[in-house]
Amino acid sequence: MDSNNKEQKIKFIREQIHKHNYLYYVLNSPQISDVDYDRLFNSLISLEEEFPELITADSPSQRIVSAISGEFKQFEHMSPMYSLANCFNEEEFLNWYKRIQELSGFDKVDLVSEVKFDGLAVSMVYENGFFVRGATRGDGIKGEDVTNNLRTIKSIPMVLRGDPPEILEVRGEVIFPKSKFQEFNESRAKEGLDIYSNPRNLAAGSLRHLDSKVTAQRKLDIYVYGLGYSTINSLKTQWEVLSYLKTLGFKVSELSSLLQNPQHVINFYSDLVKNISTEDFSADGIVVKINKLDVQKRLGVVGKDPRWAIAYKFPTIKSVTRLKNIELSIGRTGRISPVAILEPVNIGGATVKQASLHNFDYIVNNDLKINDLVVVERAGDVIPKVVSFVPEGRKGLEVEWKFPAECPSCGSEIVRIAGESAHLCISSSCSAQLKRLIEHFVSKSAMNIEGIGLKQISILIDNKIISSSADLYCLKHKKSQIINLDGFGEKRFDNWIESIEKSKSVSFSRALVALGIPHVGLETAEIISKNFRNITHLINASEFDLVGLYSIGPKIAHSIKNYFSNQLNQDLVEKLISFGVRFEFDENKDEENHKFDGIKFVITGSFTNYKRTDLVAIIKNLGGTVSNNMSTKTNYLIVGDKPGSKLDFAQSNQIETINVEEFIELTL
Ligand SMILES: [Zn+2]
What is the CATH class of 75-313? Predict the structure, then answer.
């Protein structure tokens, strides 16, 4: 082949692949079989291997360029990405419309209703029809450069169709399909990895993953809904914008509608509320925009919100189901929490089988009984909770629930500490506690041993293979016994051993956290490790010595003394040291890390496995700042159980919200 010929051929194959990508991923109507597609793709790869000088950035082969980026560069959007004002009911929406009538001077204003996708907003720039870069929304002015990760999303065209302008900046929402969410979480759980609380967090976590190969595996999708800066001036309405984006090959939601009055919008909203559970995307409302672009421009922007658009949000998602039973969950410190076992119910697209009941007082105060029909609420990231029972549902078959007198795991007496709402199993040989304790030991904020979760730990304990966290370091001698257990393969075993070996080098503070001493989280552990330098000094310290340290109160000091006064605990530490776990401060390794320099966090809600002070300590240790109040400068809102109005602020200002697992992932 002469050089002209092969260039022509490569070009032809690329065009074919772009076309079939478009048919498959955007229009959802493939015209060739997967096998033929692969054949086409492979022929491109082999030609490019033969003539690497002909590889171009827009080649379909370049969707997955490897290389883990150390961090995302920031770049400025060509025009700002606005946030949206919110309304939550018909009345508020009609008030907005009335105000638009007044401000615009028109009696009748055409509106475009669109789905408000619940994903991660991005901006993408095309030059002469070629995708050149893309970024997250960030603060609306500057975002993170996620170009490589966006390239991996097949529904994003690398080359535009039709007649693209010289420069085009488009806005869209990256989502993770709901249908694949459960499957994805199940496979994570099988690997012992943390699961994501909802498709939005998964989309955000995937798009912001530092390794675009991982992003590529995640099957993200996108809906494009608007223009930023562009060199095209002929478009007069939002409706024309959407059609134009379609002609360029973007995936635009088919649900968007041009509507002539606010009542039609209200109907559109109700229809979507009714049907959303059958759609393959998550949404948290609709977006209503004034159709005419010149009217939009005239109305302008107030603060960060354009006057010409509003988000009409879905209500908090509630469902009614039956409370089948109440079970007890036992924590690593022996704390016992009641958990509602529900008849499985679909709430906002997720199947809910369990919900939080907080504590015994909550059950009594809300008069909840077994067999009650109960209202279960799930809002955003939050763990579902039982809110109330339905009085009309009572048939006389309801049974009052009594807190058991004995621990369901070990049979020891359950104790309620005077003046506190918590019940405790105070046995020192309770296997439920031990399972949770080891789960804590291997967790990311402690020894960070990968691939082992509560399920695997339970099997190992039930089979009497381990009886303490130190036994993990002897697992390598029990290979034949373990790989014969159900669900434990050889490859997996080898990965464990590698991760267990690696854990020996975690810092002194993390090793301290791993012990699971009540009230000793990472912040306290950091202070201790810096001040006492090694575990012997700590064991020999008096409560008085401890209380002398900044932020350590009598409660923590007592807890530490109490822990080491138990010879079994001292033996455990000695055993861990003999296996190579480091219980002393390392001047070289424990140096400061400034990963979060300049990043502003706000925390809302409560957390089951982390104390708020720990999260604050982690952020500060990595150079970040934590504020009590949300502002438009906040980078991340960490959302726990029962978040307050901060979550609303974050959502209406498009500030990124993450759950605690995602936060920990950021720190690694
Ligand atoms: Zn027990």
Answer: alpha beta
Cα(123)–Cα(147) distance, integer angstroms? 10
ipTM exceeding 0.90? Answer: yes
For the chain, domain boundaries = 3-62, 75-313, 317-416, 600-667
CA 536, 542, 547, 553 dihedral sign is: positive
For 258-268, write each residue's pLDDT tens digit.
999 999 999 99
| Structure tokens, 36 | 């033929």
What are the residue numbers of the active site?
A: 116
103-158 pLDDT, tens digit per residue, is 889 999 999 999 999 889 999 999 999 999 999 988 888 889 999 899 999 999 99
Alpha helix positions (H), 521-591: 522-532, 535-540, 543-547, 554-565, 567-578
CA of 194 to the centre of ligand 1 (A): 26
Rounded distance from Cα 263 to ligand 1 centre (Å): 59
**171 and 161 in contact (C-beta within 8 Å)?**
no
Report the distance separating Cα 451 and Cα 477, nearest Å.
18
Taking the C-alpha atoms of residue 405 and residue 424, their distance in angstroms, rounded to an integer, is 11
Distance 333 CA to ligand 1 centre (A): 10
Architecture of domain 600-667: 3-Layer(aba) Sandwich (3.40)
Q: How far, in Å, is the centroid of ligand 1 from the Cα of 640?
A: 27
